[in-house]
Amino acid sequence: DLQICQHRAPTCCTKKMEESYQAAVRRERTQSIQALNFELKYMIVGHITAFQEAFESLLRFAENRTSSLFETAYRPMAKEAAEPVKELFTDISLYILGAETTVESAVLRFFDSLFPLVYSRLINPGITDLSEDYTECLRLTRQDINPFGHYSKNMVTELSKSLWASRMLSQALSLGIEVINTTEHAALTKECSRALVKMQYCPHCQGLTLIRPCVGYCLNVMRGCLASVSELDAQWREYISTLEYLTNEMAASHDLEIALSGIWNSVNEAILHAQLNGPQLSATVDKVCGQPKQQEGNLSSANIVPVKEVTEAQTFVMAHASLNNKRREFISYMKRSRTFYASIAERLCDGDLVMRDSSTCWNGEDVV
After folding, report:
1. Percent of the chain with pLDDT over 90
2. Please, are residues 61 and 315 in contact by the beta-carbon 8 Å criterion?
3. 0.90 exceeded by the pTM?
């Protein structure tokens, strides 16, 4: 009653044993593919973590630098500016990780929140009544009167260029893990599991437990079994090329590190621009939002304190170097895995599965 290991000679197998063998080859094939995938998956997961740590380190540095700008140059509004600054960098982090948001909305929301503070603490420091309605009016007016000049738009442009590649790389790495996980659990067809049993276990039915399959025979069976997986070859090669393109984009002129470290300078220039145009802004705001309550003897506008470029902190330099090294190391490894799906049958037939240094092997029917 054997269905797979039919042979002229006497046999020690039963139909039930054939079914056990079929379960065994399915389990073994999944484990073999998982073992092959492990190194590749380990490298991608490791680099996702490393990239994210480097991103976070750069973001923390840029956030601290921007916060210190308010504490040193714009002390009257430093405490209230802390929340908008924190929100801006949280939004940037979420954008890099693939959240449904845009750099433009994050930056413009930041400047919307900043304008009421700049207006009431720097341009008109005598304002006492900053009600919710008045604050909201100032936020909405910011979009029409553009108090920060071209600096807010420039910041959107610079950040969008540099963050785009980081966001795409982050999403591409996650996609790589998804592809590998899917191929690990690709179901074996009935024909494939029968062919694998015939190749690996039918010799056992003849008592030939030490004989292994011939190399050519193993390759034919594995290629047939893994045809659907090896079809990924062209797309996988294209995927590696895309990763290479994205890592080069990140290292090119729109450098993530430069853009992030320049945020504080863009914010500083934007605030200075608003202060220099204070009288015109006040006249427009008074028409649109009305005149707020003032303290007796209106205080003079806060002194404009231009902030000079500070020297790069060691943390930033280390994070920058770390990210560049990770990029190079990662893309070098991924380029070596370009033929991963094309050579999967050869790799599964390598090692202990087949007979390499012997004159006899199993060809599916007999020992040859």
Report:
1. 37
2. yes
3. no
